[in-house]
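On clarity, I found the account of how folds are encoded harder to follow than it need be. An entry of this sort, consisting of the sequence and the corresponding backbone structure tokens, reads as follows:
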Amino acid sequence: MQPTYQPLNCDLHDYLEIACMYHYRLNIEINDGEGFVATALTTRTTSSKEEFLVLQNGDHQFEIRLDKLRAITPLDSNASFGCITFL
């Protein structure tokens, strides 16, 4: 069972929305120390108010709960922000 969801600060959520709007390729670091690269597609909220970032890597689409994010760094040269830390 996952721990209780901890909502993100609204300012941090704005960066995710920008990343999704422009489909930025992101270097994503998660709380367990893992990292990967994927394209931001959209965010999703469940009926229990948990929020997820929907990502794509090649043909594989997946999602990660927002409170699992440690940092995102856009890899696009024209990105409007740099590394964002979520801790």
